[in-house]
Design a protein that fits this description.
The protein is an alpha/beta fold and 398 residues long. It contains 21 helices and 8 strands. It binds iron/sulfur cluster (SF4) (2 copies).
């Protein structure tokens, strides 16, 4: 049942009352770490929502404020002994706050949330931005370097490569994502190359849509229809798994395809089926690996498999605080840029002293990559931002 349809009664009785107030989640919460304010913690927010639902407190702007302060990183979920479904409660609450005008996402987020519901139009509208990136122009601090194909879609590219390479191994479907396909398409292309190079057959359904994570993060309408669309696009396919190269999109698709198709993070999947090692990187490059919250907390993954990171051929290590949130939160760095920047400033400080030439910050979620790219104005030395799948790409230029 989606956020929009979940009744208040179920929320009150089954979800909100599950918190036993132990406080184990406080230490995990980045907004509590930032402010030291109990109301800005998972326990504090849950108390505010519960007391409001029980009529003990009236809806007020402070509850709205503390709700909007949550990043949605889900770090509070795995540490909770009572198994409180914080993410579900947050999704419902955000949606209810938007519906009742208690919270209004920023204009650019509202426009983007509407646009991603029409992927073909969105891709067309973003073609000039893709072209600028391809030419080496990066007009915003969140836009990282890369050269996406401006006209060919990932679906067409996958078909072409399948025809020329003819892999014979297991068959997977790829979620291309809305922003990933419209703006950062080179990561989808790299994903297709890596899978096919490892003898895995790839299908990219043309009728797939946005995973719905954008609507979940903002509380805006539309998540149900997006889920319906992807159930139709992926549900009947004869594949071993649907793979995602973005941790946040993968988490959203897992919910959509629960009980219908297995959804796997592409790096985890490659770790399981085995992956060809690339030649050792010749230079003194050093890769620092950051782990997306929606991979380790949302999908409860143990991380990016060491076998996959070893296969990149780079000398790598986990970034300090790799399991802590970078402040991206899907849209948090746009909705609450000051908080997001403060969180990133602490997390990225290690790069100033990091060894390697070049220094590469690698992760597996494009929105985390965007957030890390904005650290160029915080860190005093050059560094590159890459997706781990790009480090495995047979066409990679080191
Ligand atoms: S860890 Fe779970 S039960 Fe304990 S306070 Fe936090 S949300 Fe409530
Ligand atoms: S989702 Fe993240 S920011 Fe929000 S309460 Fe949980 S740990 Fe804190």
């Amino acid at each position: 049942m989606g956020a929009g349809k979940m009744s208040t009664t179920i929320m009150e009785k089954d979800l909100l009352s599950s918190c036993v107030h132990c406080g184990f989640c406080l230490e995990a919460c980045p907004t509590y770490a930032l402010t030291g304010d109990e109301n800005n913690s998972p326990r504090g927010r849950l108390r505010l929502w519960r007391e409001e639902s029980e009529g003990k407190i009236a809806p007020d702007p402070w509850t709205d404020f503390y709700t909007s302060e949550c990043i949605g990183c889900l770090a509070c979920e795995p540490v909770c002994p009572a198994n409180v479904q914080y993410g579900n409660i947050l999704e419902h609450t955000r949606h209810a706050h938007v519906q009742t005008n208690r919270f209004k996402p920023k204009l650019q987020l509202r426009v983007a949330a509407l646009a991603v519901r029409y992927p073909k139009l969105f891709n067309l509208a973003m073609a000039p931005a893709r072209a600028l990136r391809s030419l080496g122009f990066f007009p915003h601090p969140l836009i990282f370097k890369g050269q996406p194909h401006v006209t060919e879609s990932s679906a067409s590219y996958a078909r072409r490569l399948m025809e020329s390479q003819k892999p014979t191994g297991p068959r997977v479907a790829l979620l291309v994502g809305c922003l990933m396909e419209a703006m950062f398409r080179e990561i989808n292309f790299a994903t297709i190359r890596v899978l096919i190079d490892n003898n895995i057959q790839v299908v990219v359904p043309e009728d797939q849509g946005c995973c719905g994570a954008f609507q979940e993060h903002t509380g805006l309408d539309g998540v149900e229809s997006l889920r319906d669309k992807n159930q139709k696009a992926f549900g009947q396919l004869d594949v071993e798994a649907v793979v995602a190269n973005s941790a946040g999109c993968g988490l959203a698709l897992r919910k959509t395809l629960h009980g219908i198709q297995p959804v796997r993070d592409v790096l985890e999947y490659l770790g399981e089926v085995g992956i060809k090692a690339r030649k050792p990187a010749a230079s003194g490059a050093r890769v620092y690996v950051d782990l997306p919250c929606h991979l380790i907390h949302g999908q409860r993954s143990s991380g990016i498999p060491a076998s996959v990171l070893n296969a990149t051929g780079y000398l790598w290590e986990l970034a300090p605080c790799a399991k802590d949130c970078c402040g991206s939160g899907g849209i948090y760095n746009i909705q609450k840029p000051e908080n997001a920047r403060e969180i990133l400033a602490k997390k990225s400080a290690f790069l100033n002293e990091a060894e390697g030439a070049p220094v590469i910050l690698a992760t597996s979620n494009h929105v985390c990559m965007m957030q890390w790219n904005s650290a160029h104005s915080l860190v005093e030395r050059p560094f590159q931002v890459r997706h781990v799948i790009q480090l495995l790409d047979p066409e990679q230029k080191s």
